Amino acid sequence: MFHCFYNNQIKNTSETLIPVNDLGLFRGYGLFDFFRTYNGIPFQWDWYWARFCNSAEKLGLVIPFAESQVKEAVAEMIDLCPEKECSFRFVLTGGVTLDGMTSTNPSFFILSEKISEVADLIYAKGIKVETREYIRDMPEIKSTDYKFLLQIMPDLKKNKSTDVLFVKEGWISELSRSNIFVVSEDKIITPKKNILKGITRKTVIEQLTSDFEVQERDLTIEEVLNAKEVFTTSSTKKVLSISQIDDHIIGDGQAGPVSQLLLDRFNSLVQNWKG
Amino acid sequence: MFHCFYNNQIKNTSETLIPVNDLGLFRGYGLFDFFRTYNGIPFQWDWYWARFCNSAEKLGLVIPFAESQVKEAVAEMIDLCPEKECSFRFVLTGGVTLDGMTSTNPSFFILSEKISEVADLIYAKGIKVETREYIRDMPEIKSTDYKFLLQIMPDLKKNKSTDVLFVKEGWISELSRSNIFVVSEDKIITPKKNILKGITRKTVIEQLTSDFEVQERDLTIEEVLNAKEVFTTSSTKKVLSISQIDDHIIGDGQAGPVSQLLLDRFNSLVQNWKG
Fold first, then answer.
1. Mean pLDDT across the stretch B242-255?
2. By three-state DSSP, how is residue B181 classified?
3. Could you give the CA distance from residue B200 to residue B235 in angstroms, rounded to a whole number?
4. Residue closest to A31 by CA, chosen among B41, B28, B175, B198
5. Would the CB atoms of B17 and A19 count as touching at under 8 Å?
6. Most CB contacts within 10 A, which of A111, A132, A261, B85?
7. Is the pTM of this model over 0.90?
8. Residue B259: closest CA among B180, B202, B160
9. B23 contacts in A (CB within 8 Å)?
10. Quick one: DSSP state of residue B143?
């Protein structure tokens, strides 16, 4: 059983009920963040917390608890967690509204959740993604807005695609819930604009690639298709190779050496994670 | 006290609680519609219902009740309503999710709400709106996505603006929750693309302007600023003059004669509304 912190109480998630008239539900006025533990310790807490605060500030929402209070609730939920590791979802919304538009108190939820690990076979083979002409609305904010993804999910499933790569007028930005990197002529390149700046992306750039030249810059879809390797990074995917984009096979259609090296380095980093 | 229909039950809205892990809250995967009664009868039911079905289909959500069942619930809620007239909000979401991404059963809520009427003084004076470089994501769907509006609400309030007019690369589309019309050289012109097609917009075009030339076409912001009159239409605003856009005064800064004529015609139509 996993748990939800809401209104200063920790309950089983399945027993957590909230008022129907929340601006998160009525008006999509909400944001979230999502991280996991390694060795029972939140991974990159400072970076996730800073991003959560940044999203809140940009969306005009005040987090109704101090960082220390949130940390305390998370620690308590880790103790209650039925598994060795778990992930956490923070959700912050505009709160309960009486007129469908305004509220005075944001709602804040912390949920512990089961981790779904990517299988080794998938790390070895890489994933297929498909492109869509789209750019996330307010991409630098981790808003709750995933309606585009959820609407195309049946198509992705039908096409055996794991995810979608957003392309706008020839320029790529990100996958629906993760960042993208390409390996090209011994450089590692990743978009800088119109993306949510991922914490795994930051980990890769700042802590795992000191022996590579890393460029943050605009990338065309052609450059991606012609890359030696393409990979994606996220809290749940870590460093995961992309071996197919639409009908185009990247490299030899398997995880490339750079992705595998960075995944190994990532795994070493988290294995010894002490916070 | 107003009410909410959920899980085949009608309760006071303040007593209606829902599971926290709804995709409407977690992933902004939701849509709605909003209409009101005149003479205790839903206004333009067929058109609103058709639009609600269209939004649901486009977002890939199945409405879990037949039209007749929904009509019955609405009739019951009208009987329970403490006031002569009320408005209704239908909300349809992806439903409860266990993995944060998928669900099998959409959630459907019907809420009766208090109507907030526009004061006569405001109809006479018109409203001030301000422009923003923005276009709604999936504008033809009445999704719950109003995060952009809610984020800029404090600015609108500070600037004494009633609403925001979306402009993208010089082309206007709509206000945050209503359509826009301009009166220019005895023609009435309204955008056709990148908008939610309002039911009041449709009422004006199809039932109130047979003696006018009405054009549905692209409009630049310059054309709007230079118009003799500008007005907006919505379920709650009916036909409401826009007398100021940013620092620019439209016409003589009061409600123009065409807006007033169409508001009179609209009021006559709804006064005798029998469904």
1. 97
2. strand
3. 6
4. B28
5. yes
6. A111
7. yes
8. B180
9. 150
10. B
